[in-house]
Known about the structure:
It is built from 5 helices and 6 strands. The protein has helices at residues 14-41, 70-73, 83-93, 125-144, 171-177; strands at residues 44-47, 51-55, 61-68, 110-118, 154-160, 180-187.
Amino acid sequence: MRHRRAQRSKKGHGALWSIIYIDLMTQIMAFFVIVWTIEHGAKATQTPKLATGFGIGMGDQTVRMVDLPGDVLFASGKTDLAADGQQVISNLFGDPSAGVLNFDQGGLAVRKLVIHGHTDDVGAKDKNFELGYQRAWAVFAEIRKHSKELPDHVVLCTHANNTPALEAQTPEARAKNRRITIEDLVVSPPVAEK
């Protein structure tokens, strides 16, 4: 008697190719998301003859940062904003339609402007800390002319000469180091006590 061979059922590979295809599309999409993030997330911007800045990520971190050049803002050892410095601040913050000083984040986050005062290496360190703060205050006072709600959304910092833009001790380097950095910071809202 002849044994019948058990017929093997042919299984299609339809499910296998679709899994491979979906996996490939997911990897391609992830690649383009990474490329887009690199291209748009940390894009350097130049404001002609005003300031340089960059932006990164979202969440509890810096969204934008602008360096205002010290040679436009302050003379060495001085805290009074020069006329050119006042014009730069007005150009950056004076247009209400630009929304730069609009702090409403819909309750999802809290937006803060952090104003960092930097000095050159001339003078005593203690005096440079005080000078850096006074410069940050001078810029705050100028920006405040454009927003009534600014005092609730600002942090002032001083770095003295601890974070120089240029390490050299030349007049040009010292002018670059006398600067203000304005950081646009987005943080999570404070948690209410229960």
